[in-house]
Write a structure and sequence with these properties.
The chain is of the alpha/beta class. It has ten helices and nine strands. The chain binds pantoate (PAF).
Length: 284
Amino acid sequence: MKILRNKIELDNHLVEIRKNDQEIGLIPTMGSIHKGHKSLVEKCIEANFFSLATIYINPTQFDNKSDFENYPCDEKKDIFELEKIQCDALFFPSKEDMYPNGLKSQKEILDYRDILCDKFRPGHFDGVTTVVKALFDITRPDHAYFGEKDFQQLKLIEKLVQQNALPIVIHACPSIRLKNGISYSSRFKNFSTHEKKILDNAAKFIYEHLIELKHNVTSIILDKLKKNLLEVGVNKIDYLEVRNEKELSFASLYEKYRLFVAFYIGNIRVIDNFALHYKVKNKK
Ligand code: PAF
């Protein structure tokens, strides 16, 4: 795997790749590589694209200083993990590469706002779309891979590409889940054994209620799930909502639905979503 430490190295390397007419697939990450990230790289490799992973812990998407300071980081292990699956190249952009005019983010995308994570983490998605746009601008990929775990992020990035008419195919990839059914997240590396147990118990209740939600969506079921999560030690629930996949608005009949959840265990935020799709088969 080629390690690229600055924009000049990146440009020189990509010139060679483009000479061979190989399409470039970008896998942007903030490091702490786990199975979810690796599945994105593997999808890119399977498609025969040049797999270019990036690691940059983006300060502008953190709404909380201590979350940024405690974000897990292990460069050696990340390189090892990506090398193991034969990722072609790994780029570590610098702050200057990403933010040549200083650490500022722009509110470019106005859709999918004021709901879900945007309601609880103001400015977060401006940071995400700003850095993803910067990554697109300097790597100019043909394809880019994102996980469905961050579903709202994925919708905003799809809009970013559409709004700017960027010639990039966005690949939305299914979540890779832990044994307990929750999607992998880099932040889980900071969990204590006790907090892991809370996550396992929370997952058990989520899956129990998913069965009910597949038959019917009611506030009674959601309230019961909220109560159960708080009982097993979740200390704050940001949201627990059923929304459709297309607009992320509250679901109505015959749409694809998901249960969207965000809550805290200790001071670590867990977000996930679970497809329900219970009415779709009945569509006339
Ligand atoms: O999903 C992430 O890891 C980040 O939000 C991303 C897309 C790499 C932007 O910093």
